[in-house]
Amino acid sequence: MGDICVGCEELLESSSHLFMHCKVAHLVWYEIFKWLGVVLVMPPNLFYLFDYFSAAAFSKKSSKGFRMVWHAVLWSIWKARNNKIFNGIAVDPLEIAEEAKVVSWK
Fold this sequence. Notes:
Elements lengths: L14 H7 L1 H14 L9 H10 L4 H28 L5 H12 L2
């Protein structure tokens, strides 16, 4: 597979692409935003996404929860990537989003 993203299998993998700009990542974030009731345009990098994501919360307590979700999404995308590379398991954005939801609220 080399340096090609295992999610979209089209473009070179970078952290920005893998976690934000890949078709798979876009679908994962769309599902997460919908679940949280957040409308957000995808920013250019992960730092802005973290800031926007934290600011989208309506209270200090929910801001902490939103940050937990953000971390769970990144971890779930990374785990799916590794499952594809090392175990040949197909990448499914809806499954990734569901896993992130479960992990973030354990």
